[in-house]
């Protein structure tokens, strides 16, 4: 960041920064003796003791016991992590939608919105370097002449890019960072492809670059939806298995109850027969 400020004449030299030493601290954990003391608490219910023991011995995350399925000796935990999104590349689907196509006047440029430069105010915070890198990657589609580079830099600034993405996609959280870095990589990868540079008119080429950017964002959002659908499917499948396992457990308990009742009935019946045999036996002894 300091190098960027030096480059744009915000600094006369890079300041010297000395990293402060951070003292090492001992890790915080419950020792074996402390855990044993917890297990020996009289007022603590046995259920919670078993729960603490489960987390300690298996190392589960907080919500994993609620969504997992016990399959014999194995605990099946569905994959609910966000995982890695599939990469988006400049393929035939991009080319077929972008070339050929009717050219739009620059006054109709709206893909994406609000990318064109505006006059910045003096109280604005420093722009995020990621959007400096993104504009640099986009500029590779205009590096066939210095005139086109100058036009691009006057039309699109890192700050307008930052404002556009913050206003429209800031809600994505961690995926927002993936979107910005993915777009930068995308335009870096197609920097040597001349499809866009065949369009001589600057405004028409800028429209096409905007369309490509919008197509990438649409594909990215589709990937997010597919990932969320898969996570929800895993959770639903786990819930179904849990319900089925609980139903089977109920059947087993009912069977055990019937078996216990039958055994108890036979024992009572046998005792009653033996009791009926006692009076005749006593009478025979008296005779």
Task: Pick out its properties.
mainly alpha, 287 residues, 10 helices, two-stranded antiparallel sheet, single chain
Q: Determine Rg (CA atoms, Å).
A: 36 Å
N/C terminus separation: 116 Å
Low-confidence stretches: 101-114
What is the number of E strands?
2
Mean of pLDDT? 77
Secondary-structure element series: HHHHEEHHHHHH
Shape: elongated
Structural class: mainly alpha
Question: Helix count, per DSSP?
Answer: 10
Question: β content, as a range?
Answer: under 5%
Q: What characterizes the major β-sheet?
A: 2 strands, antiparallel
The largest beta-sheet arranges its strands as: 1-2
In percent, how helical is the residue content?
55-70%
Secondary structure elements and their pairing?
Layout: H1 2-7, H2 32-39, H3 46-58, H4 64-67, E1 69-71, E2 74-76, H5 92-98, H6 129-139, H7 146-155, H8 158-169, H9 174-189, H10 202-286
Antiparallel strand pairs: 1-2
Helix pairs in contact: 6-8, 6-9
Could you walk me through the main structural features you see in this protein, from its secondary elements to its overall organization?
The protein is mainly α and 287 residues long. Among the domains are: 29-78, no CATH class; 92-116 and 126-233, no CATH class. It has 10 helices and 2 strands. A two-stranded antiparallel sheet has the order 1-2. Helix 6 (129-139) crosses helix 8 (158-169) and helix 6 (129-139) packs parallel to helix 9. The longest helix has 85 residues, at 202-286. The chain is elongated. Mean pLDDT is 77; it is low at 101-114.
């Amino acid at each position: 960041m300091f190098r960027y400020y030096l480059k744009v004449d915000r600094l006369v030299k890079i300041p010297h920064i000395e990293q402060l030493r951070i003292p090492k601290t001992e890790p915080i954990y419950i020792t074996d003796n402390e855990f044993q003391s917890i297990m020996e608490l009289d007022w603590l219910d046995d259920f919670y003791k078993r729960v603490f023991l489960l987390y300690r011995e298996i190392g589960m995350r907080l919500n994993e016991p609620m969504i997992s399925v016990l399959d014999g000796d194995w605990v099946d935990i569905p994959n609910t992590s966000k995982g890695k999104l599939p990469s988006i590349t400049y393929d035939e689907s991009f080319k077929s939608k972008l070339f050929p196509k009717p050219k739009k006047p620059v006054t109709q440029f709206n893909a994406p919105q609000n990318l064109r430069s505006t006059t910045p105010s003096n109280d604005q915070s420093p722009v995020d370097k990621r959007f400096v890198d993104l504009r640099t990657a986009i500029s590779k589609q205009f590096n066939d002449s210095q005139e086109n580079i100058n036009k691009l830099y006057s039309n699109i600034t890192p700050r307008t890019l930052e404002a556009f993405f913050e206003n429209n996609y800031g809600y994505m959280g961690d995926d927002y960072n993936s979107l910005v870095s993915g777009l930068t990589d995308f335009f870096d990868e197609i920097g040597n492809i001349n499809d866009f540079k065949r369009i001589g008119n600057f405004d028409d080429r800028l429209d096409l670059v905007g369309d490509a950017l919008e197509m990438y964002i649409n594909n990215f959002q589709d990937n997010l939806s597919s990932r969320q659908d898969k996570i929800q499917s895993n959770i639903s499948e786990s819930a179904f298995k849990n319900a089925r396992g609980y139903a089977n457990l109920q059947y087993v308990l009912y069977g055990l109850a019937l078996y216990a009742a039958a055994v108890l009935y036979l024992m009572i019946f046998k005792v009653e027969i033996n009791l009926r045999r006692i009076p005749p036996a006593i009478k025979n002894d008296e005779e």
